[in-house]
Amino acid sequence: MKTTAIVLFILTYVLLLSLPKHRAKIAMATATIFVALGILPFSKVFTTVDWNVILMIAGTMGLVSLFIDSKMPSLLADFIIAKTPNVKWAIVSLSLFAGIISAFVDNVATVLMVAPVALTICKKLNVSPVSSIIAISVASNLQGAATLVGDTTSILLAGHLDMNFFDFFFYQGKMGLFFIVQIGAIASTLMLLWIFRKEKQPVTALEKTVVTDYFPSVLLILMVLLLIVASFIPNTPRTINGIICMTLFVVGMIRALVVKHDEKTVANAVREIDYVTLLLLSGLFIVVGGITEVGVIDDIAAIFIKIAGDNLFIVYTLIVWFSVLVSAFIDNIIYTATMLPVIGGIGALIGGDITVLYFGLIIGATLGGNLTPIGASANIAGIGILTKQGYEVKTKDFTSIGVPFTLIAVITGYILTWFLFA
Predict the structure, then answer these.
(1) Residue 201 CB: number of other CB atoms within 10 A?
(2) CA distances (Å), 418 to each of 187, 316, 404, in order?
(3) From CA 385, how far away is CA 139, in angstroms rounded?
(4) Do residues 110 and 140 make contact, with C-beta atoms less than 8 angstroms apart?
(5) Helix or strand or coil: residue 174?
(6) What is the pLDDT along the chain (422 residues), one digit of tens a residue?
(7) Where do the H-state alpha helices sit in 196-239?
(8) How far apart are CA 218 and CA 224, in angstroms?
(9) For the whole prediction, is pTM greater than 0.90?
(10) Which helix (H) or strand (E) holds 407?
(11) Closest Cα to residue 148, out of 128, 124, 178?
């Protein structure tokens, strides 16, 4: 059974990388086979899917549709066009903008909010939005590790170490993950400037868009605030973030129907939810849950501990770069949830403070997802948006940006984390 699971898993990810147009079908087909063969018991299917992530994506997609209809993205696009001299700076500015938001909002939600701005800018400038959306996705994924509410992996770490929101800024009297990530973001932004160095098409300011409905923007801001507040409330449901996003989306729809009598906007919001991306993520949760169920992840951990021994630097180095490699192909949420107890087991064997190992896991797992288009939910969401707009994103299109961005960010975080917490 274990061999079958490994073969199916490898085949699935080869197909996911090779056939980008059929990723959802491939993931769901493999998930179905896993359940049919008993690799993952049917009774565990529902709990294996991370419904917090699924609900958050669905709710945010709906909110973003209302946000787009309000014409606020177009106004932001006009503002950025007016402040940037060329396409290069427009793309980099958007990635920085996405990064700032992503530090306080789930990175998938950030991509869904900022991508419409990029699409609008590219449409007005008559250029392809592929590079812009990819840059936004990787920047969002990077900053997701900066705060407790930035990414699900950060939420998992905080729960495991009992960290609160401000522990991400200063931990044990030292600079926390927030500042480590910011320094990495500066380095990776310089890399983006180099990658887009040839995009020197001038940007011309256009007539400003007029926004007449600010309520969707208020809902998005409220979403950020509620996600932060929820992080301080103990014993909340595991799906609290998803509940917040879906509730605000429902509020937006009710308001559109009752106050504005705008059935068209509501219908469009429901239609704009990217059900293909939701199916892809659901399938991936089940597939990775299946290989975890049969012990593949445990076997890898056992081999990992055998190789690393009790040398803290070697253990740390292996954790960071193994996490980068694995997270390039496995959703980092499931991987992080699996590895946190493994890190605890390693700590029990080698003794001492192992904060450096936990932080190294987050650095490697979160940033490593930027190596491939399927390594992080934010990347999947970004590509889903492009596909929905009729653009085909080849793996090489993504890796040409994702690989150099990831390497410079991980190397910076790897060095800083070791010197701060070793």
Answers:
(1) 13
(2) 17, 8, 21
(3) 16
(4) yes
(5) strand
(6) 888 988 998 898 788 878 877 888 998 999 999 999 999 999 989 988 888 878 887 888 888 788 878 888 778 777 877 888 888 888 898 888 888 888 877 777 788 878 888 888 888 778 889 989 999 999 988 888 888 777 778 878 887 887 878 899 999 889 999 999 999 889 989 988 998 888 888 877 666 778 878 999 899 889 878 887 887 788 888 888 889 989 999 999 999 888 888 888 888 888 878 788 788 888 888 988 888 888 887 777 677 778 877 788 998 999 999 899 888 877 677 678 778 878 887 787 777 788 999 999 999 988 888 888 877 878 888 988 898 888 888 888 898 999 998 899 999 999 999 999 98
(7) 215-230
(8) 10
(9) no
(10) helix 395-421
(11) 178
Q: In the block, which residue shows the tokens 């939701």?
A: 278
* Residues 361, 312: Cα–Cα separation, whole Å: 14
What is the Cα–Cα distance from 277 to 377, expressed in whole angstroms?
Answer: 9
Q: What is the signed CA dihedral for 160, 165, 171, 175, rounded to 10 degrees? A: 130
Dig out the tokens for 205 from the structure: 């300011």
57/333 Cα distance (integer angstroms): 14
User: Could you tell me the CA-to-CA distances from 33 to 22, 74, 212, 268, 284 in Å, in that order?
Assistant: 17, 44, 50, 34, 13
Farthest CA pair distance, the chain: 66
The one-letter amino acid code at 226 reads: L
Q: Report which of 165, 42, 48, 196 is spatially closest to residue 103, judged by C-alpha positions.
A: 165
Q: Closest Cα partner for 304 from 338, 272, 328, 355?
A: 338
Contact 133, 386 (CB under 8 A): yes
Terminal C-alpha separation, the chain? 40
Helix (H) or strand (E) holding 171: strand 170-171
Question: Which token pair is 262?
Answer: 């705008």
In the numeric block, the tokens 């169920």 are attached to 293
CA atoms within a 13 Å half-sphere pointing along the CA-CB vector of 264: 2
Phi, psi at residue 99, to the nearest 5°? -65, -40
Q: Which residues pair with 202 in a beta bridge?
A: 86
